[in-house]
Amino acid sequence: MHDVTIIEGRPVLTEAASIAVVCARFNHFIVDQLEAGCLDALERHATTKAQVTVVRVPGAFELPVAVRKLAQSGKYDAVIALGAVIRGSTAHFEHVAGGAERGLGGVAADTGVPVIFGVLTVDTIEQAIERAGTKAGNKGAEAATVALEMISLMRQL
Ligand code: INI
């Protein structure tokens, strides 16, 4: 029999933590719902209150630069990025969505701070609405529980 050690986080906050939530204002009709879902989930999954800071940037393309500065500050246990890139109304969809995705992944890899990708990249406004608190759940709330799980995991590694 092998000696197996399993380490995993739990999506519950039991010790103090600081979390930054960075929201893109573009498509704010959608992103406001992601933000509300995210803050609500942080509240409901925390037995200890999280210190939450909300930061706003113009669009999803600007998320990485702000997230990088927050992650490098050493003040946050996790940074959640929220945005909505909708192909239907975005001629340069690939550039905006790809820039956000690559940029955010780079921040996590470079800083070691968990960066949570709460950016919707969808074809239509309907699909965005479905993921912003209707039939496909709320991607912002999902991002919150992933952040808590990663904080819990990082504290055990
Ligand atoms: N930004 C978004 O967050 N979502 C979009 O769908 C979008 N569209 O449609 O273009 C978008 N564009 C703005 C972009 O993020 C930058 O703010 C802009 O290009 C300036 O750098």
Please give a structural write-up:
The structure is a single chain. With 157 residues, the chain is α/β, with parallel strands linked by helices. Helices cover 43% and strands 24% of the residues. The chain has 5 helices and 6 strands. The strands form 2 sheets. Strands 2-1-3-4 form a 4-stranded parallel beta sheet, with helices on both faces. A two-stranded antiparallel ribbon has the order 5-6. β1, α1 and β2 form a beta-alpha-beta unit. The radius of gyration is 16 Å and the shape is globular. Bound molecules: 5-nitro-6-ribityl-amino-2,4(1H,3H)-pyrimidinedione (INI). 5-nitro-6-ribityl-amino-2,4(1H,3H)-pyrimidinedione binds next to β3. The site of 5-nitro-6-ribityl-amino-2,4(1H,3H)-pyrimidinedione has 15 residues, from β3.
Task: Reconstruct the topology from this structure.
Elements: E1 17-24, H1 28-44, E2 50-57, H2 63-72, E3 78-86, H3 93-111, E4 115-122, H4 125-130, E5 132-134, E6 137-138, H5 139-154
Parallel strand pairs: 1-2, 1-3, 3-4
Antiparallel strand pairs: 5-6
Helix pairs in contact: 1-5, 2-3
The structure holds 5-nitro-6-ribityl-amino-2,4(1H,3H)-pyrimidinedione.
Residues 24, 26-27, 58-62, 83-86, 89-90, 96 line the site of 5-nitro-6-ribityl-amino-2,4(1H,3H)-pyrimidinedione.
Please summarize what this structure is.
With 157 residues, this protein is α/β, with parallel strands linked by helices. The chain is built from 5 helices and 6 strands, in the order E-H-E-H-E-H-E-H-E-E-H.
